[in-house]
Amino acid sequence: MKKLLARWLDSDVGYSFRHSPVAILAAVIAFICIFCSVFAGWIAPHNPFDLATLELSDASLPPAWSAGGTTKYLLGTDDQGRDILSALMYGARISLIVGAASVVLSMLIGVVLGLISGFAGNWIDAFLMRLCDVVASFPAILVALLIAGVGRALFPDSHEGVAFGVLILSIALAGSAGWVQYARTVRGSTLVERNKEYVQAARVTGVAPLRIMLRHVLPNVMGPVMVLATIQVATAIITEATLSFLGVGVPPTSPSLGTLISIGNKYLFAGEWWITIFPGLMLVLIALSVNLLGDWLRDALNPRLR
């Protein structure tokens, strides 16, 4: 592990990372958020979703530094007495899982369709690109709302796993924010790669087209895909938070950051600002750090900027 880390730090990408204070700061923030969310069950002061531990007498307490606050709840509590700090850790975990899973699914769909479109060409390329144009013409949030709403209507009493699956699918298929960008990116790179000498040599030697796509073309088009996937994680998390804020996201029993913001929004004008402000800040920190890392990775993988 140490050798791999040392080798990466000595590479061109590692050198770029070591000399980019913005990338280092973004990586630290992202690591802290991910670490706290993954290990929330061990490091969170309370379990905010265990009804047996909630005390209504502790409801709507302000942060510890405000008048009436207590060090037991550093960031205060919500209307049900749930610790805001603990809720942030648990909520961020759900947002990260849904965001990462939807990006993986949309990347798989987009990469496969982009490879087929760029390598096959002819009517297949025309059909798939027109399909991308049609899907991209709809607002991403509208498509996600439609799929999530239909899923809720078809499975009203479904298990949480089904609800999460519908949500992940809705984000992955959400117009230009989902698989379309991957398909277009991979298609453009494949059009360039398929005319190069190594692909022509593989064709002459009788290598099957599927093997050429997977063995030769795919590794050479994954650079832009990885950059796009990094940036899309932040977009997926924000989309999930938007859906949860509108009430068609994750189940109420497993609230994410969007659900916490929605709950706190009801009490914002009553002076209980901390219920919605802190989840909002957590969402901004995660999205900003991931976007900054994506920008750095794009520049680091661009040979023209070295």
Automatic annotation (TrEMBL):
Signal peptide: none annotated. The keyword Transmembrane helix applies. It holds the Pfam family BPD_transp_1. It is a multi-pass membrane protein. One of its GO terms (biological process) is transmembrane transport. It is found in: Cell membrane. SUPFAM superfamilies: MetI-like. The chain crosses the membrane at residues 21-44, 94-119, 131-155, 161-180, 221-246, 273-297. Residues 92-294 form the ABC transmembrane type-1 domain. Gene3D superfamilies: MetI-like (1.10.3720.10). InterPro entries: BP-dependent_transpt_permease, MetI-like, MetI-like_sf, OppC_N. Belongs to the binding-protein-dependent transport system permease family. This is ABC transporter permease. It comes from Variovorax terrae. The lineage of its organism: Bacteria, Pseudomonadati, Pseudomonadota, Betaproteobacteria, Burkholderiales.
